Amino acid sequence: MSNTLSYKNIELYAMLVGAFGGNGYYLKSNKWAFMMAGTGRNRDNMIPKPSWTPENKSNVYPSATFSGDNRFLGLQSRSFIRLQDVSLSYQFKQQWIKKARISSLKVFMSAQNLFTITNWVGGDPEIGNPVLENTTPVPSTYSLGINISL
After folding, report:
1. How far apart are CA 95 and CA 75, in angstroms?
2. Which residue ranges does UniProt annotate as crossing the membrane (predicted)?
3. How far apart are CA 129 and CA 131, in angstroms?
């Protein structure tokens, strides 16, 4: 969804992108259960974590033990909203720039990927990487510019 607002010589453009209803598995959602299957070399399995039981219906950790059939993979929502693009520009009035023999002059600043709202813990929800390690965040970029027509 995008929109452009204009007032006199100022223009503001914004674009939101998002996805709703998608789910993905996050491999480390139940690290405790995963480590229970190991040799005990990792002490993380000694720290009690809230796993699902009939009395405790937590969805954070679906199982307290590793079953070998991927039940330790936690299904999580990949829904997100991202402010993808924002730009603010100013178009100079013709009377101010005609002495410099310029037909139009516009200055602008823009930014991409300012923020993402999501509950997905595995990095970028759009990519849906199931492991947080070795993922790179979505980079934010900023720019300033001038458009000149002679």
Report:
1. 61
2. 12-27
3. 6
Please state whether 31 falls in left (phi above 0), alpha (psi between -120 and 50) or beta: alpha
Q: CB neighbours (10 Å) of residue 69? A: 8
Contacting residues for 20 by C-beta, under 8 A, at least 6 apart: 79
User: Which pLDDT tens digit goes with each residue over 24-41?
Assistant: 766 654 454 444 444 444
pLDDT single digits (tens) 60-73: 665 555 555 554 45
Region for residue 134 given its phi and psi (left: phi exceeds 0; alpha: psi -120 to 50; beta: otherwise): left
Structure tokens at 60: 């954070």
* Tokens at 17, concatenated: 């992108």
75 bridge partner residues: 25
What's the CA gap between 88 and 108, in Å, rounded? Answer: 6
Segments making up each domain of the chain, as ranges: 1-21+80-122+139-150, 23-77
Count of CB atoms situated within 10 Å of the CB of 4 = 11
pLDDT band at 20 (very low <50, low <70, confident <90, very high): confident
CA distances from 50 to 29, 31, 145 (A): 12, 12, 52
